[in-house]
Design a protein that fits this description.
Blueprint lengths: L3 H9 L28 E8 L3 E5 L3 H22 L10 E6 L2 H4 L12 E5 L4 E6 L13 H15 L6 H12 L2 E2 L3 E4 L4 H8 L6 H6 L7 H19 L2 H5 L1 H9 L4 H9 L3 H11 L6 E4 L8 E6 L1 H14 L6 H13 L5 H14 L2 H14 L4 H19 L5 H21 L4 H10 L8 H13 L4 H13 L3 H12 L5 H12 L30
Parallel strand pairs: 2-3, 3-5
Antiparallel strand pairs: 1-2, 1-9, 4-5, 6-7, 7-8
Helix pairs in contact: 1-20, 2-4, 4-5, 5-8, 6-8, 10-11, 13-14, 13-15, 14-15, 15-16, 16-17, 17-18, 17-19, 18-19, 19-20, 20-21, 21-22, 22-23
Length: about 525
Amino acid sequence: MVSRAFGVGLVMAAALGVWAPAWGQGAGAPAAPPVVQADATGRWIRGESEHFIVYSDRSEALVRRYVTMLEDFDAILRRLHGKTDAETPRKLPLYLLSSSRELRRVIPNADERLQGLYMTSIEDIFVLAIRDDSNQYDRNNGDDTVLHEYTHHFMMQYFPDAYPGWMVEGLAEYYKTIDLQMKRARIGDFSRGRARSLLDDKWLPMSDILSKRATQFDRDDALTFYAQSWLLTHYIWTDRERRGKLQDYLELVRDHQDPMASWTKLYGQDSAALEKALRGYMKSLPVLDIPREPPKPQIAFTRLPAGADDLILEIQRLKSGVAKAEAPALLARFQETAAKRPGEFYSRLALARAEIDLGDRAKGEAILKTLLDERPSDLEALQVMAYSRLETARRMARTPADREKAKAVYADAATYLGRAHKIDDDNYLTLYGYAETKSMDREPSQNTLNVVFRAATIAPQNPAIRTNAARLFIRAKQYELARELLEPVAGNPHGGPQARRAAQLLSTLEGKVDGEALKPSTAAAASGEGDKDAPGG
């Protein structure tokens, strides 16, 4: 089930070459860089393979095993879903941790039992994972959470659509129990935790499983929901006839038909009959056995600057948002830690981020200008500066008296993004930021639409980017593309307020048909009118 819009988007993205920002605006062309001494290295290492970037302060041997396991799992998913040669527009970063204490450096209130977390923000999409090698009976060494979350990531990357909650969670549960052996992979075995829930006589009604999300149940019932969702997915996924009816079932549900009645119509089972079938099915679960040669991925290792020892996880906390009450203490930590290494590029860049997000924006931008004098082609510094300027422009644009000044700040941000684009021309942060620099245009040009669509294609897991891209397509009267962008967000079983906003926006599109597509010249001029639907606005 490949999203229709994303097939169109890849064609549209070919026009990205239209954007070639000039050097002569705002920040100006960089001077010849001075000779800068490399930062001293610390404990943290970075292992990069074809599809992943793993950071850890543990041994290189452990990181190698972990990256190999991830590449192995990814290869199996690609093989089973026909995506062996599919584009990988962005490698997934993963932070391999040794304890809950490290996890709480990113998520201060993390539960002691939490083993991993998949996080999305405008600035990053990444995984936190605690590696536990203490259980010799766990085939995945405590990696079930990571494999579960990577299944979500993979499906959203290559099959973005609105799926019912049981299928979203059921697929992740089905694949996470994979047994990666040397010459074969076994898929479909049971999870001991889920099995305990299923052996309990108290099941949730299958009508609830088909129609609700895990977040609609209390904790104990949510565990049962995951277990029954896994079993239902197993039941469908391993039988050709049942799987063959799945697409028709999903179409009925997306058309707002009752989930249980739709199931009965296609599969001939009411809630009680489906439960009876599943109870019988779980007594002898078929397991898929795939002969194969395990991958031997190429992994490039680098050692990070010493400042990463103290700040790498705190930077990820910044990206995820910091509560106002926690900001002063976290900013002080950045200031004190950076002061230990006053000449280190890494620590100064981390401090610039913290000042911009939590403290004095002007001070943070001053640090960035110094850093960019030293390293004019540092992609991260250029993007941090651009997004700081974008935030300033957004605030100014809300005040009528400052709107003309806001245009100049947007132009300044565009210059930094232009420089970033020359370094990496397919980076979602750069592309999305560029679309925002056009926030004051009366209408989005086709080039702006192409750029923001490409950003959403590279990072389809990011709900804010998808939603804000959809708003631009709505303004351009390209409603079908807007629907395709919004439906996976609205259908995300863990989407929370973002899912509700996307659903509300979808409801406004009922009955609307596409207008004439914009031409690149349609929206060339900027306007003084408000733009409340612009990305980030």
